[in-house]
Amino acid sequence: MVTDAAFEIPEIEISTKVQEFLSRPKKCLINGNWVEAASGKSFSIYNPANGSIIDMAAEGDKEDIDAAVKAARKVFDDPKHPWNTMTPSERGKLIWKIGDLILENLDELAELESLDNGKPVGVAKVADVPLSADLFHYMAGWATKIEGNTIPISVPYAAGAKFHAFTMREPVGVVGQIIPWNFPLLMAAWKLGPVLATGNCVVLKPAEQTPLTALRLGEIIQEAGVPDGVVNIVTGMGETAGAALAAHDDVDKVAFTGSTEVGKMIVQAAAGNLKKVTLELGGKSPNIIFKDTENLEQTIASAASAIFFNHGQCCCAGSRLYVEKDIFDEVVDGVSAAADQIKIGPGLAGDTDMGPLVSSEQLNRVTGFMNAGQEAGATCVTGGRRLGENGYFVTPTVYKDTNDDMSIVREEIFGPVVVADPFDDIEQIIDRGNDTTYGLAAGIWTRDISKAHRTAARLRAGTVWINCYNIFDSALPFGGYKQSGWGREMGHEVLDLYTETKAVCLGL
Ligand code: NAP
Ligand code: MG
Known about the structure:
This protein is 40% helix and 20% strand. By secondary structure, it is an alpha/beta fold. The protein has helices at 16-23, 62-77, 82-85, 88-104, 106-117, 121-142, 184-197, 212-224, 238-247, 260-270, 296-308, 325-341, 360-376, 407-410, 426-434, 449-458, 493-496; strands spanning 3-4, 28-30, 33-35, 42-47, 52-58, 163-171, 174-178, 201-205, 231-233, 253-257, 276-280, 286-289, 320-324, 379-382, 386-387, 393-394, 397-400, 417-423, 441-445, 463-466, 485-486, 499-507. It is globular and about 70 Å long. The strands form 6 sheets. A 7-stranded mixed sheet has the order 14-17-18-13-12-19-20, with helices on both faces. Strands 9-8-7-10-11-21 form a 6-stranded mixed sheet, sandwiched between helices. It has a 3-stranded mixed sheet with strand order 1-15-16, with helices on one face. The protein contains 17 helices and 22 strands. It folds into 2 domains: 30-35 and 53-281 and 486-504, 3-Layer(aba) Sandwich (Aldehyde Dehydrogenase, Chain A, domain 1), CATH 3.40.605; 286-474, Aldehyde Dehydrogenase, Chain A, domain 2 (3-Layer(aba) Sandwich), CATH 3.40.309. NADP nicotinamide-adenine-dinucleotide phosphate (NAP) binds next to helix 9 and helix 10.
């Protein structure tokens, strides 16, 4: 691996507000109290721009998970608890308030996210933080709209009898939620919004790499007035705290976002008490450009952004770029030129387009794939390098001359690395697009509306973007086919996954 050792990282001042937050100890939120881990242990939180330790957080484990689950259970099981006597309208107002408080603290949250995760602070300000607030605002409206049906029934063996039958949607109970590091605050919002809208109680475990904004969100949730014990947050490791949560016998549902590999472990851990499981997992999404795309220049810019946004650390990244033969060279050159224009630097520097990868593990993973691509004989059109020696920076990278068996084509890299390949047959490209164990997202670029719809219908993916990419909205369900997951987040569909249906039948 070529390393550009001359890459210099400037020192950046941290705002007083963030310094204040960093100076407070990072504990677990259990039953409304901020507490140390029972073991007394803590773990380091790193700045990926220079590898330095920025803070320490309580290393919660089985015992802390158990205490948090007990707190959540106590609230959930007490019919007189304020959380359970609250009207849906009051609950909606609380959730709305969380959204408002996120916006009030937008700059601080964006800076914290950038410091912890490495993403450009400007991106966190316009995407991560406002989208998180919007998710709470959107879910606030649903609190008053969780409805059942009245159902006319016939009951063939009860001739002449009359019944009044209806369904109710009730909260599923105590929910365990485990989230990744790529959009730390936003993933917490995606998870907590529906939990609160549907009246559940929760234990959330943030990723060990990026616990800071989830902890700040815990403070905001308290400030909004959510009763103690409804939202509990336990920081710690996946193999210990996460595994204990997934396996806990008193947890009714586990919602997980992360790798497909760990998703499979969650399913096994959940089998003990057959808790409900939802999974948002990895992807290797095809982005298919036809030669009749409306505006080639804009398509090229979008194809670059589809893979390089968030440093490629997006589950739905457009990581397999398929381009119709006639325009292949132009698109590959264009995407490579766009890659070369990307200004790489610490997330907190105002002019940074792309920050470091999140961790040294992720750096090793991504550079490992770069080496594998090289060894397998793919042509590196641009990038393929690490930058500097302390932070976790890599160059945005474009490969061509790949074949469909190479690991860089088959596996989720989760870094700014795209493989580009030409095609000339629409049937064949749909099959190749679907030739993956994943099914999270896909992109299609054409001005032929019939072709766009035909292709969209045949791609086995939870989201298909036509003439756009990476468009998210709180109202739009998101999730995966195949090994990209079970269930959907956002939209009203997510509410079904946080409620049980109770059928009530009354003999008249
Ligand atoms: P990961 O290693 O699977 O970790 C995700 C979460 O699971 C972290 O909180 C992690 O804890 C925890 N964990 C690890 N091992 C565990 C275990 N044995 N039991 C229970 N929990 C465990 O994934 P990642 O590398 O952080 O995140 C990247 C992955 O997330 C990618 O595959 C990406 O595609 C996927 N992702 C999917 C979506 C989606 O919506 N589909 C969204 C974002 C990301 P620690 O980190 O603390 O160890
Ligand atoms: Mg970090």
